[in-house]
Amino acid sequence: MMTPGLRCLLLDPETGWRMVGAGMEGLEALPDGLRLASRSLPLPADGTLPPATPGSGQGFLAEGRVVLGPLDGGEAGCTWHRVELEADIPTGTALVVQTLTSEQSADPAPARPGTGTAAGDGWSSPQVNPTEFLVQSRAGRYLWIRVSFRGGTRATPRLASLSVRFPRVTSARFLPAVYRESSKGDGFLERFVSVFDRALEPIRSGATEFQARLDPLSAPADFLPWLAGILGVANDPAWPTEARRRFLARAGRLFRTRGTPAGIADALEAFLGRRPSLEEHFRRRPEPTEAEPRAGIELPFRVGVDPDREAWYAHAHRFTVVLRPGECADDAARRALARVVEAEKPAHTLFDFRVGEEGPGPALVPEGPAAPRIGVDAVLGEEGMRL
Length: 387
Prior knowledge:
Order of helices and strands: EEEEEEEEEEEEHHHHHEHEHE
Low-confidence stretches: 1-8, 43-57, 292-299, 359-378, 381-387
CATH topology of the largest domain: Jelly Rolls
Strand content: 15-25%
Helix content: 10-25%
Shape: elongated
Number of strands: 15
Structural class: alpha+beta
Largest sheet: 5 strands, antiparallel
Mean pLDDT: 75
Number of helices: 7
Radius of gyration: 36 Å
């Protein structure tokens, strides 16, 4: 976290380095990093950045420096852990990095670009051409970082990025208390075990990040097929990524409701991003008409029906998915939707799509188990059968 109103440098992926306030001299900012200014460029007295243009071939300044900070650790007595740099350092050039801490955010006198690179006045010992190093400064809420550039007439170091890790948390906290009886020994012990912690950090980071990978909504897209395999869920790579995430996120519910109208609607909702309407054809059957009972049997109880002419057969085991215009615009979209329905519907049912007005939303599901009605949604016997 940066303290507003004080000097710092920001690295923006589009515009590169740019200055906020003051705090550097003898440097220029290019989209790919910070470097010594070209000799052809005038050095500004007010600390503003020179134009971001490559050198004109007249060489570079011999040295320059920048002070970054204060960085806010968020609490008093923060132990800053490690500074990491990405830099291009040609032969004959150098980057020298130092740190300074304080409990006050006010700009201390040493935190100025023109104070050299010697240790003292609170600055740590210089680190020459580091890729990373442990912060040696004492604990303090605020941190300043001074980076000094040393170059030749034809070469300059280039600083591409700089990051700071905090607070310091090491495996020394797992050791018996006897190893931490001395406050001086604590510092040495933490620096010593940090060497091993750094080697183990990729493993620990991977374990921490793995939890996020198990959530379909936060996992990387290339990790979704693995999640689908673990859950036993079909996950077509041709589907939009967001649809695949939604489908995996509700996999548990889809397993519980598979084969039901609600389950089909859930699967389509995951694919489309909205819940479509399902029309079950058996609800289109005409109501039975009253008829005189014969031989103690109430009509329309019938034996020996013709399945080709009966409404029961015409509407049984069929349903229609009602879509909005544009959701089934071409054959590819229709095939993708059909695969979703085929994976969720009962195997013996038939379905079709209809593009029309918005339906009621939820699937049409009976409120409770309905008893079969002879002659309406159930028949007895086959054609030619006699009692």
